[in-house]
Amino acid sequence: MIESDETNEAVDSRAERLAANWRAVREDIALAARNAGRDPAEVRLVAVSKRHPASDIAALARAGQVDFGENYVQEVASKQEELQNLPVHWHFIGGLQSNKAKFVAGRFELIHSVDSLKLARVLHNKSQSLGCTQSMLLQVSLCGEEQKCGVEPDALDALVEEVLGLEHLRLCGLMTMPFAGDDPEAVRPVFARLRSLRDGLEQRFGVSLPELSMGMTGDFVQAVEEGATLVRIGTRIFGPRL
Q: Where is the Alanine racemase N-terminal domain (predicted)?
């Protein structure tokens, strides 16, 4: 009985810490938005819950968090099954290979990391077979790092034209992963460039691309100030990954 009480106290303490971290991040997002003359409601927080247990997601959902980001197909499938009764939205934010895409289509509100026509076609075909339309973003490589996934800017128009022709995909905007560094101001131009690329695509193709997924724990303030509508934050909420 004592052990059970201690376990419950530990769970409650963890939930309280997560909720406090979450509220602090939301306050920082709101402040960054207001400083940029934006409505804080324009920015959605995607809590990056990869490698954290389903109990953490449940605790944050009870606090009011809605959007959760995951990277690994098997891990998220287990969480979705366990948490199927919670009112949460799932985002796939990790690198995605075409041989795994069929397991992702239809399971996520938004896929952030589409970076090739081959991948887009696999997602489209699977979505078609499921009778659904999959919302997605194109990941753009803006830092010249080979290890970073993403379509190069000079190939973006051609990919957008092809994706817009796939009726079971809904292109909602762009995503980028900036280079890692200690100075968040150093990546501000990357965020500004992504916004500029999005604006140009809207004009050239006559479409609305409302979403810009950019900014993580170390640089989300700069991302919000440059127009992010989705910020992907894990460590500041959950602490170090398991």
A: 24-240
